[in-house]
Amino acid sequence: MSIKLIRGDITRIKVDAIVNAANRSLLGGGGVDGAIHYAAGPELLEECKMLGGCKVGQAKITRAYNLPAKYVIHTVGPIWRGGNKGEEQLLTNCYINSLELASKYKVATIAFPLISSGAYGYPKDKAIRVAMNAFKTYLLDNDIDIFLVLYSDEPFKLPESLSSEIDKYIAEYLDEQQQSDYERPMPQQACFYEDLPKLEDDKNLYSAEIIMEENLLDDKLRVRKMMSLRSRERRMRHVCAEETLKLDDVMNTREETFSERLLKLIDQKGMTDVEVYKRANIDRRLFSKIRISNRYTPSKKTALALAIALSLDLDETIDLIGRAGYTLSNVLKFDIIIRFFIEKGNYDIFDINEVLFAYDLPLLGC
What we know:
Number of helices: 14
């Protein structure tokens, strides 16, 4: 199971079922409804005529005909009337009833548009919050891959307060890093000017340069000799270590792999595998690979998703992903946003993914 936010044309998504934001008649209309009917062909309209319409919040299913899906699930969203007319519950019903109908028909993958957010006027930030909450509720007891599809040119806005807070955090964090880099002392360089003769006039400059070059040459030779001796010493130590260390000693000093550390953390947190991979928004099969092979190296977004699922603090997160060869950069916006949520103690991966999506960044898990 997983929830994926994507941009694209829902009529081209290859899934078992797509959801149509229909009107009550189910006889086609504008927007997503019109696009789905056009892509499916006239047979879809003929089948819809036999369904007798659909009430707001309910859902009905048809074949998909010329679409790359098997089924089209038609649901009727509410018209936005200010938010005090039961719109949220009706919109939630659209998603839950569509998912339950999909489950009845053994659908494993399903794609939704952002229902009611077009001509029906439901504010997009509120509409996506309803959709995500409905998905999370349904996935607590069910397994299905859900795609929430927004058209490429459809704007995606976060709540103004959250957007401002994150923009401010990113700007301040980057500014702090730049200030830190500016204040960091420059590496000290060797200086040989102390031994140079005092220059009375320009004619002594050439001899002074010769002295400096000789001093530099002598210093380089000393450094090379020192490096050679240290290299020989390291090689000797390595040979001796290989001769004396036993296999058991090597195994005892080996650091935990990502998988080993992850499983230990799961036990420490008293969580089940199902809880972890659902909270991480990753597929059960992927989690099984990580569990079975202690040498499996996940992608960075998967490693971070698992850290979020376990509610690890910043140091614990860096330690865990470090065992897979990753770190949190001080300059990448993706990494800074992850830091923001960890520092805020918000470990809801779907909240994080909404923000990442708004900034056109890769999503966690998935």
